[in-house]
Amino acid sequence: MRPQNLTAEEQYNKMVNTPVSKLITGLAIPTVISMLVTSVYNMADTFFVSHINTQASAAVGIVFPVMSIIQACGFTLGMGGGSLVSVRLGQKRNDEANYIASTAFFTALGIGALITIFGNIFSNQFLSLVGASETILPYAHAYARYIFWGAPIMCASFVLNNVLRSEGKAFFSMIALTSGGLINIALDPLFIYGLGLGISGAAIATLVSQSISFLILLSWFLRGKAVCRMNIKFYKPTGQILGKTITTGLPSLARQGLSSVATILLNTAAIKYGDAAVAAMAICGKIVWFVGSLMIGIGQGFSPVSGYNYGAKRYDRVKAAYFFMVKAGVAIMTSFGIVIFIFANQIMQSFIKDEAAVAIGVVALRWQIAFIPFLPVIVGTNMLMQSTRHIKAATFLSMNRNGIYFIPAVLILPNVLGLFGVEITQLVADIFSAVTAIPYLIHMFRKLDRLAKDQPQS
Fold this sequence. Notes:
This protein is an all-alpha fold. It has one domain (15-452). It is 84% helix and 0% strand. The model has no long low-confidence stretch (mean pLDDT 86). Belongs to the multi antimicrobial extrusion (MATE) (TC 2.A.66.1) family. MepA subfamily. One of its GO terms (cellular component) is plasma membrane. This is Multidrug export protein MepA.
């Protein structure tokens, strides 16, 4: 069903009065579809590239930190701007929302351009630094150079995507991301095999599909389908606007930035056991990310509901939205986790035929997927804090899974347990991250209860 073009007032009433279960479901379905399509076409790159050889498969994992850096910049401005936009719209301060959205968008384009310039100049040095061996480096360079060229549109797309979601218009975002994803999946085999471009073909397919998604996303704003207006005249890179946007997006910067560092350290630890280990961990990471993206999609359906209602002082709805999100997330994560645990061997074999890589990947996949039902607490609590502008707590929580707990684990466990330590690093980090989130959640709920009691009775 096509969404109605609601006025700002109608959108406000929808976000603060619709039952949260219905509202989050309606917002989460398109975001989950968007995240799934994004994950599928990322996995498609890995799937088709893995059939070239083990080194090509490992190269995709080596280039992942590049993607993480681009995502870190885009998510910082996108999630920061989106969180502020949803609160401003909840407060009916629509003009301020326009300034925030436009400033985040044009800043993202500029930062992406810098990544393109410096990435292409220092490509080989960077890829060697993040763990590319002499046999992997040529494949990694062939893949990364096109990813660097796509940095501006990727960064800006994250902003457009998150602003639409913050308005409660996730359907428009879904159309753009799904279109790009399906095109990417179709172009991968054509470019890689049909045109004989090899691993470069996968990167070109990604660049083309990302460009198409960007144009579709931008068209919603240019055609007046969004509440916010995207215009250079609203670009105000002041501390009040850009500063607050970056500050609010710090949890995303910490999460994605540390994800890049974590992947570098994981690749460095895995390369000691050969190219097969790097390839196995890269494939395992994409599969776990596929499942985790479902939870992130649900969380992104929750985030604008939380931000709108926190801004509108409907604290009871913020709590109800969180509980619904976590219950739905646990049910979905558990279902997928069981299936992947049972069929881990068959799943790995579908990606790569290298027996050593399959053996390593199966162990890592089963250990990591066993804890996936607890991911809703980690993701949900982080998004609750970020959407309500509890920035310090959100930043700390976002640093745990890929930083505060992961980095010591990946530095210590492989030295103590060898290859098995590499395989279980993410599991250990996830356990500690979930345990750490619980006290923050309890404190936040107590605060929401106090704020609700202080509200004047109507």
